[in-house]
């Protein structure tokens, strides 16, 4: 079979999109999957249906084809032994975007999503080749619209523009058809007879038809949004999937924390809508905001971050001391989490124009993507704003529009815009700068949308009105923090979140802070366990680089917060009488009796023994030695060890608060054995950090010895 041509920019990379793995590669992958057999013609994957994961072929061939809701099926490629089936959707278990059928008898290694992620981390060089292929395949699907819904409606219709923006910003393929061009699009309108407000029609891959759906409705129909309740108690829940939030997610998940990211619209935030970022370190030719944040989005999924987009947070609920925080979503669901990171950013300010809402999405826009640029071809547009985002958008639109008028309230751009952008705007023959000017009125109709814009020159009071169908607003920034109202998180006068030293003393005079026994961390808010980063944080520098830096820096504070919370929980737990506690058996070890404490970080015990715990009965360990630093309670005791835990994979020994979940989850990525055993005298349990299950009354393993083989006391870092 001769493979059909790929899009021109991908044809030269065909060998990277569809690599052939050798016998050694296949052997390395065996432990991550299960061998299955398929009959001739049997379906391995169906577009729009959940996929079991990635298929690695050892015998036979599989034909891949792309299909849409209109019934079209187009061959993509036929793969054989040594090749694998899958794209980035398989990292998170989302529905397949293509059909796959066996050609003859097929034998394949099926690697489920969580084991695929483990493979990518454990086998770095092999994982790099697989990851590159998965990403390139998604790029190919995006460029052809394969596997996604079909939008049927007028190109400038507000509903179509809105849904196109949602799908493109979330990296999901789609096709858009104009019924005015006739053909199948016109036939669909005749068949369903939608009213104007019901456009566009959305034909999903399974053939179902939606009429101008909400983004959340479409996301559920496509399998992009998790269904049902959030059963997991997360270590970290990040609200906002912009650069700051994605940075936190990547670093936290890569260090073993269980992370959920919520965003009400799309990943990328304001930066994701930027046409080109040229002053971000490491990209000398520049990079689009969408490309930069899409890489972070895929990277987060590689490390196991769970994404719920679109999912809007209604409120934050504070629980009793020792209990998890709770986020209430607008759809009625609840997320329980040990820490919250506020990365919800800021939104562009809406000017005080009486009829602004009438034209939003129908001529008035707050971002400039290729979708909006397409509508501006050969026309005159107006853009309002004097910051970097405004400058980047103006340069981008100038490549499509006949003329771009940039209205700026200030007297000069240098105070608010990077010099390279100022120079580029001044050099463009299609860009006209209009200083000390603001928009005062809009005119148009419901049927035709925006038709004219009036603005006023502030020093002279002179007003002008021009026929303009497209107005782009990039002015100011209002914090997206209204969901924090009433929860105890202190805001500044503008609504941005106060953190660290900016809190002062008054917000900290609470029982919650007294229970922690510490001061807030740099990015921590007035509510223990709730942090704020990026544009939502008071006095932060509103730049992509700063947001990413804060997102990575807060992870160390999250670990410290979880450690502090676990220590506070132990201090508050009931303890046996001092007379029943064991006496020290070594000058550098202070033993302490058990009191039925929960495993580290307050994880909940479950009765069923998971497969990881079943193997502990046969595990052998050597005499233990300390491998890391202890918790605050250890430090208070002059450096003596109090609480000891051993990793049953490598023998690492550390304090119970020395990030055991991070350490064990790293091993889970590599060996699927994420178990920690307690060596604290009087305690006898092992804990699986992946399955959240407990095994009590562990048999004494041959070769174990009490924790007395220390050569020196622990010292504070």
From TrEMBL:
Molecular function per GO: oxidoreductase activity; zinc ion binding
Entry keywords, A to Z: Flavoprotein, Oxidoreductase
Residue ranges of every copy of the Cyclic nucleotide-binding domain listed in the record: 17-137
SUPFAM superfamilies reported in the protein's UniProt record: cAMP-binding domain-like, FAD/NAD(P)-binding domain, RING/U-box
Composition skew (Basic and acidic residues), residue ranges: 568-577
Pfam families assigned to the protein according to its UniProt record, in alphabetical order: cNMP_binding, Pyr_redox_2, zf-UBP
Coiled-coil regions listed in the entry: none
Region (Disordered) location: 567-603
UBP-type domain sequence ranges: 608-714
Matching InterPro entries: cNMP-bd_dom (IPR000595), cNMP-bd_dom_sf (IPR018490), FAD/NAD-bd_sf (IPR036188), FAD/NAD-binding_dom (IPR023753), Ferredoxin-NADP_redctase_2 (IPR050097), RmlC-like_jellyroll (IPR014710), Znf_RING/FYVE/PHD (IPR013083), Znf_UBP (IPR001607)
Gene3D superfamilies: FAD/NAD(P)-binding domain, Jelly Rolls, Zinc/RING finger domain, C3HC4 (zinc finger)
Entries under SMART domains matching the protein: cNMP
PANTHER family xref list: THIOREDOXIN REDUCTASE 1-RELATED-RELATED
Name listed for the protein in its UniProt record: FAD-dependent oxidoreductase
